[in-house]
Amino acid sequence: MDNAKYEAMLKVAITEARIGLAEGGIPIGAAMFDRDGKLLASGRNRRVQQDDPSIHGETDAFRRAGRQRSYRDITMVTTLAPCWYCTGLIRQFGIRTVVVGESRTFTGGIDSLRELGVTVVDLDSEICRDLLAQFIAAKPEVWNEDIGVDA
Ligand SMILES: [Zn+2]
């Protein structure tokens, strides 16, 4: 698949990230697409909104997509490289294609995913980086909480 297709998918995740930011949450969004590129579900980090540390962009999209018979042809798109928790989800369910908006702010588990044979496409999106950079500058303590770093 060409990057233009992935960029279009990333836009869905970016929209979720912006909704999250408007809600006062951490601007990280995700979306899942089937083998034909059809949107299954999208979601966003709602740690702050729901007071639930388990709701990351990826897990939110995953839950909203409901039960899937197979994940091997599903593409997980996320505005930020997946953390270890979400890397575990991708590994557990055998998702083989992951598109990340960026990995400079946070690398997460993308090297491990690549070692497992998962195709990781890093679009290095300035929009994604800027969204998060603004949030981190404004609320560093919430960011540290999200990535599991003790202040
Ligand atoms: Zn995560």
From TrEMBL:
Main location: cytoplasm
PROSITE patterns noted in UniProt: CYT_DCMP_DEAMINASES_2
Keyword flag Nuclease: no
Entry cofactors: Zn(2+)
Coiled-coil stretches: none
Compartments it resides in: Cytoplasm
UniProt pathway: Pyrimidine metabolism
Residue span, CMP/dCMP-type deaminase domain: 4-113
GO biological process, one term: pyrimidine-containing compound metabolic process
Keywords: Cytoplasm, Hydrolase, Metal-binding, Zinc
GO molecular function list: diaminohydroxyphosphoribosylaminopyrimidine deaminase activity; metal ion binding
InterPro entries documented for this protein: CMP_dCMP_dom, Cytidine_deaminase-like
Subunit structure: Homodimer.
Annotated protein name in UniProt: Cytosine deaminase
